Amino acid sequence: MDFVEVSDEAGAAHWKMTGSPTILLNDVDPFATEQSRPSVSWRLYRHTDGTADGAPTTADLRHALAAAGLPASGTD
């Protein structure tokens, strides 16, 4: 796992960052939408129940890991 600090729009475009935090799995943002654009702004993650938060849910992360063919580890 790598952590990259991005401080400007050029860095956001280079690292495919669409708001903070951005999670990339195999170089793909599994939570991006068609409207997502490179940005150093704060990001909201929309949940299936209609709420929003500053991070994806554990279930959403596990689903994204599985879809990317990556193992999910740990406990809730």
Characterize the structure shown.
- The chain has two helices and four strands.
- The protein has one domain (9-67).
- It is α+β, with helices and mostly antiparallel strands and 76 residues long.
- The model has no long low-confidence stretch (mean pLDDT 91).
- A hairpin with a 5-residue loop joins β3 and β4.
Radius of gyration: 13 Å
Q: Order of helices and strands, N to C?
A: HEEEEH
Strand order of the largest sheet: 1-2
Q: Supply the helix-strand structural class.
A: alpha+beta
| Counted beta strands | 4
| CA(first)-CA(last) distance | 19 Å
- What about the largest sheet? 2 strands, parallel
Mean pLDDT: 91
Give the % helix. 10-25%
List unreliable stretches of 5+ residues. none
Domains (count) = 1
Report the total helices: 2
Q: Report the sheet-strand fraction.
A: 5-15%
Shape type: globular
Top keywords for this entry?
22% helix; single chain; 76 residues; globular; alpha+beta; two-stranded antiparallel ribbon
Topology:
Blueprint: H1 9-15, E1 18-20, E2 39-42, E3 45-46, E4 52-53, H2 58-67
Parallel strand pairs: 1-2
Antiparallel strand pairs: 3-4
Question: Quick summary of this structure?
Answer:
The chain has 76 residues and is of the alpha+beta class.
